[in-house]
UniProtKB/TrEMBL annotation, chains A, B:
UniProt KW 4Fe-4S keyword: no
Protein name (record): MerR family transcriptional regulator
Gene source species: Parasedimentitalea maritima
Biological classification of the source: Bacteria, Pseudomonadati, Pseudomonadota, Alphaproteobacteria, Rhodobacterales
CDD domains attached to this UniProt entry: HTH_MerR-like_sg6 (cd04781)
Domain HTH merR-type, residue spans: 3-71
DNA sequence: CTGCAACTTGAAGTTAGCTTGAGGTCAACA
DNA sequence: TGTTGACCTCAAGCTAACTTCAAGTTGCAG
C-alpha cells in the first residue's frame, strides 16, 4: 500500500480536494497519515471514491453511501442491505432504459403530438409505476 | 383532453402540489386553465411529469430537462440534442450496471479485503473512466 | 347563505453537497 | 535561510430544488 498525496487523489479521482476533505468529515474516507499537514491516502481510497461517484450517480445520498460502507459486526444485515441497494440500482436502470427510448423516440418520431403517438403512449404507460416510487419512499 | 385538478395531478404523479407550482415558474409545465384560482391541467401533463421524474433520476437538472422540452423552430438541433441526452443516459446505464455488480460482489464475496479480490479489482478497473466524467463536464 | 377545506400568492426557510475566503503552517527548492 | 506555493482549519457562502408560512380567496356541502 503506497501513500498518495491529496492533490494526486484529486487528480486521479476527479473530485476536488475540498470535496475530499468534506467526505472525510462525513466519514466516507480517511487519510491514513499526514506529511506535515498534508493528507496522504492509501490507494484503496480510489476504489472508494469510484464507488461514491457511482453511488451518487445512482441517486444515493452521501449518507446512504456511508451506510453501505459501514462494515459492522452484524454483517448479515449488511449483506441484505447491499442486495437491496443493488435491487434499487437495477430498478433505476430499467427506468433509465425507458427514458433513453423515449428521448430517441421524441427525436425521431414525426408525429405532431407525442401524446397521440401510440408508440410513445405505450412507452409512457410503462413509466409511472417506476417513476414515482423514489419520491414516496423518501424521508 | 380533459382537465384535471392540481390535487389530482399531484396524486397521480407523485409530485406535491408545491412542486408543480414550482415547475410552472420554471416553465416546465403549464396549467391550461383555472377553476376560480385553482389550476387545472391537461392530462398530457402526466407524461411530462413522468419524463421530468425520469430525467431527474438520470441526473439531469430541471434546467436541462427544460431545454429538452423546448421544441423550438430549429428542430434539427433539437433532435441532435435529444440524441445526445439519450447517449448520456446510456452511458449512465453502463455505469450503474457496474455499480450493481460491485454491490452484489461486496455482499457475497468472502474475501477479507475487496481491494485484494481480483474480481473486484477487475470491476473497479472499468469504472473510473466512466465515473469521473460527469464532474469534469459540469459548468 | 355560511362555513371551511383546499386552494392561491410571494417571501422566507430548508437541506444536501460542496466551494470559497481569511489567516496560518510547512516542505522543498534556490 | 528565506521564500513560495500548496496545503491546512473553520466559518461562512452558494446553488438547486423544493417546502413552509402567513394572509387571502373560493368551490361546494349543508
Amino acid at each position: 500500500m503506497k501513500s498518495i498525496d491529496i492533490s494526486e487523489v484529486a487528480k486521479l479521482s476527479g473530485f476536488k480536494a475540498s470535496a475530499l476533505r468534506y467526505y472525510e468529515t462525513l466519514g466516507l474516507i480517511q487519510s491514513d497519515s499526514r506529511k506535515g499537514l498534508r493528507r496522504q491516502y492509501d490507494d484503496t481510497v480510489l476504489d472508494r471514491l469510484a464507488l461514491i461517484s457511482m453511488g451518487q450517480s445512482a441517486g444515493f445520498s452521501l449518507e446512504e453511501i456511508g451506510e453501505v460502507f459501514q462494515k459492522d459486526e452484524h454483517f448479515e444485515i449488511d449483506r441484505q442491505r447491499l442486495h437491496t441497494k443493488a435491487d434499487e440500482v437495477e430498478q433505476h436502470i430499467r427506468q433509465l432504459r425507458i427514458l433513453a427510448r423515449a428521448l430517441r423516440h421524441v427525436a425521431d418520431c414525426t408525429a405532431q403530438s407525442h401524446s397521440e403517438c401510440p408508440t410513445f403512449r405505450k412507452m409512457m404507460a410503462e413509466a409511472p409505476k417506476l417513476a414515482t416510487r423514489q419520491k414516496q419512499s423518501e424521508h
